[in-house]
Structure prediction request, 636 residues.
Amino acid sequence: MDTLNLAWLLIAIPLVSSAVLLLLGRASDAWGHWLGVLASAASAVLAIVILVQLLGLGADDRVANVHLFDWITAGDLTVSAGLLVDPLSVTFALLITFVGTLIHIYAVAYMSHDADRRRFFAYLNLFIAAMLVLVLADSYALLFLGWEGVGLASYLLIGFWNQNTEYAVAAKKAFIMNRVGDMGMLVAMMAMFATFGAVDFETVFGAASGAGQGAMTLIGLMLVLAACGKSAQFPLQAWLGDAMAGPTPVSALIHAATMVTAGVYLIVRSGPIFEHTPTAQLVAAIIGAITLLFGAIVGCAKDDVKKVLAASTMSQIGYMMLAAGLGPIGYAFAIFHLITHGFFKAGMFLGAGSVMHGMGDEVNMRGFGNLSKYMKVTWITFMAGWLAIIGIPPFSGFWSKDKIIETAFVGEGWQPWVFGTVAMVGAGITAFYMSRLFFMTFHGKARWNDGKNDLPGPERHPHESPALMTVPMIVLAVGAIALGGVLSIGDTFVSWLEPVTGHVEHHEPVLSVPVITVTTIVLVLIGAFLAWRQYAASAVPVTPPTGTVLTRAARVDLYQDAVNEGVFMRPGQHLTRTLVYADTAVVDGAVNGLGSGTLGWGERLRRLQNGFVRSYAAVMLIGVIGALVVVLASRV
Prediction:
């Protein structure tokens, strides 16, 4: 049986599960969470079966189009709903469903005391289904359906505890900022239809080489704008930190395997377009480089454990965008880092949730310290993720991130020196702030009230989390340790993606590979040592010191909210108020004035109907005189 034709079940299973949980309501409270887990796991098993079938085919046969039904017919536009099953989409499907299932299992315990746990799992399943639509679609129109579905599900999940105003505002912020990026997607699709008369991948990619440079650049830039919104890239990154308001499993799901990686997927999937627009390609690379440093700098000053991880997500996706912007030479490495990042970042988010579970939902790292003594499994699994993300060999991040750094040094002119240096320096900063997080949380002296010391704050009794939480963390830690090395053997992963990304010959960077590798590792070790000296070997103040100008700026996300408010929000508010005033005073004023005038004249004329003959005779006399004046005037 050809399982590729069953790919639609990947989407249908979690979608039906979500609908069942929402429709049954409280009736499914007792078992709804397990239905959510089962649905995600079933999709994961099916994704593995499809992967096995693809592996059994030759490289040229690993791309299949699965037609579902005719969807949109409007004038010259005809769009069918279909799935594109190829190495890229199946890789994403595996990541989404496998990591998603582990997060589902973790959430069973993490959300066990929440009265609305069943609704939470309904939203999780909806998120998984929407993300699968996004990566399996065979057209931009269907991809956009998943794109919006992910946005809706993230809004529901980030604002799950919407009884807290701050959380509801965070959900709204994420929703609105994503809509800015969505405008780019819509404009890109309209430009595609105007240029190619279609929005499906096969037609657009096939005709891209014959299109005008202007059209291709417009489409490429709009796709980059869309990617910036969904993947929290500069200048649309401000929503990501606030999205930490959602329950921790949501943070893990959004940051690791799904939503924020969608922009990278979009750029790589649209490779045939970007190959014909070097301008858009360069813009994508520049945005990736800026975001890489932006997120790393912000991560150095945050004390909220989840917000440090959020900043690191922004920075790591900056690496992926940089690689994707480098063209075919970077596509496979962007996806490679996306996959390894999915494992170690999900593991660290779940580890952060485990710490919060043991510390009464505390997120301030200045109130942690020495937790390795009380939470052995969390400490060890988190350590695997920490070593992976800073790029220590042989952990996964070393194999994927260093490939991006090496690729960034390839090219001519100023680009390899700028992009390569940014990527290398970013690795050193990453090592500092992620080591800062690790040491502040698990090492040094305890900075929490255990009931026996005189430290302020509520009494804490840190303890290890239950098996439903620690087992998924262990599985993800194994991926953080070994996945990168396994997929690097014989360039296995790069070869696997070749039917989509194409074969790329080896290019020599402007610096030799050993120099790049050794220099990067030295920078990483220096960053980790500085963090150890300051946050493990020395006392960590419970109250944050004033810090330098840069530290204070990083604490407020380099004033990104202030800039957004000053450049976009307040001018928008003033424009809206002006339009409201014009509508009220001019448009409504003219209409209301005309009505009032007519009413006034009607009132005056009504008074003439008084029943007195002499009044009517006077009116008639005035009318006759008026008629005579008109006649005489016309003859002059």
